[in-house]
Amino acid sequence: MEIREVFARNLRALRQAKGLSQEELAHQAGIDRTYISSLERNVYNASIDVVDRLAEVLGVDAAELLKRPSDDLQGSKSELDE
Amino acid sequence: MEIREVFARNLRALRQAKGLSQEELAHQAGIDRTYISSLERNVYNASIDVVDRLAEVLGVDAAELLKRPSDDLQGSKSELDE
DNA sequence: ATGTGACTGAAAGTCCGTG
DNA sequence: GCACGGACTTTCAGTCACA
After folding, report:
1. What's this model's pTM, rounded to 2 decimal places?
2. CA-CA-CA-CA torsion for B46, B40, B25, B49, nearest 10 degrees?
3. Domains annotated on chain A, with CATH
4. Of A25, A45, A50, nearest to B48 (Cα)?
């Protein structure tokens, strides 16, 4: 599993857990609205600076956003990367 | 402390802990030697893809390279970012 | 074995819009 | 509220020569 996909998933999951819209997150992190959308759809390779800014708004450590899921055996194949 | 600097330090520390030269690390990660040098000197905002490739060679999780030092009280002021 | 400036192509990232 | 596109600027990715 590519790191980009890990990031994309974590980003979306955490954002929704926080009850934020893409627009709100974008605004608070000082990032373009459409770019957040792209990141969640695994279109780009974000820089660590962007990861950190998003992590801050989401209230977690930057490392959290790059954490791979600890081998979910239920895990169906990804729909983000195929 | 900026995430870039955190990354730069962790990279250098882990590389040296592994007893690798920049050249060896560069070779194994398929990255140019001078680029590694730039990253360790905090010149660029690495992409998560690069972080992941380096982490793999260093035998750690990508998230490890972005972990902030847990507030080292001995910590003198950085020489990387001033 | 590393730091640095200069360089180029490629991708990141912004800003405008649409359905 | 989000996906997706086109056009645009800035920064990274990657290589070279040199100290």
Report:
1. 0.88
2. -10
3. 3-81 (1.10.260.40)
4. A45
- Provide the residue type at B75 as one letter: G
Q: Are A20 and A81 in contact (CB under 8 A)?
A: no
Strand partners, A47: B47
Smallest Cβ–Cβ distance between B48 and the set A46, A64, A68 belongs to: A46
Per DSSP, the three-state class of B47 is: strand
| Residue A12 to residue A21: CA distance in whole angstroms | 10
Interface of chain A against chain B, CB under 8 Å? 2-4, 7, 45-49, 51-52, 61-64, 66-68
Beta bridge partners of B47: A47
Backbone angles phi, psi at B47, to 5 degrees: -85, 160
Q: What is the pLDDT of residues B66-77, one digit of tens each?
A: 999 886 555 445
- Provide the pLDDT confidence category of residue B59 given band limits of 50, 70 and 90: very high
Helix (H, G, I), strand (E, B) or coil at A47: strand
pLDDT level of residue B25 (50, 70, 90 thresholds): very high
Q: Is the pLDDT of residue A35 over 80?
A: yes
